[in-house]
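A favour, since you know our structure tokens better than I do. It will help me judge whether the discrete encoding reads sensibly. The space below this message is yours for that.
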Amino acid sequence: MLGWVITCHDDEAQEMLLKLEARFGPLAQCRAVNYWRGLSTNMLSRMMCDALHETDSGDGVIFLTDKSGAAPYRAAALMSHKHDRCEVISGISFPLLEQMYPLRDRLASAEFRGAIVSRGGSGVSSLWHQQQKNPPFVLLHDLYKY
């Protein structure tokens, strides 16, 4: 089953998790990380790292963030590069998570990424989709080659 780390500004992540638990019961491998104003990026990264390790069973972890480019998204993006089968999604809402919950145990992380982005509408994207728009920088020549 895919782990979920829901991370949003203020109390929104915890509120979404509580609503999901009210609908589906206790959620295994699911954590909320709230990002409050004034919280250091170092502390946010530590909280998200703990949540990543608590939710990862080896099948992968999906970071579900509220805003693309904001601190929770950036922290998740940095962590995702160090762990296999990690995806970062932005623009989430409770109705979307409610719709996607049953797919956690049926889809691989990359399949889940595609499904949530296609169902989420124009406001939902992923780190992978953003990277496809802006491919990494490639040197055309080697400055240190003799």
About this structure: The helical segments are 12-24, 41-55, 71-80, 94-100, 109-120, 127-133. Residues 41-55 form the longest helix (15 residues). The longest strand covers residues 3-9.
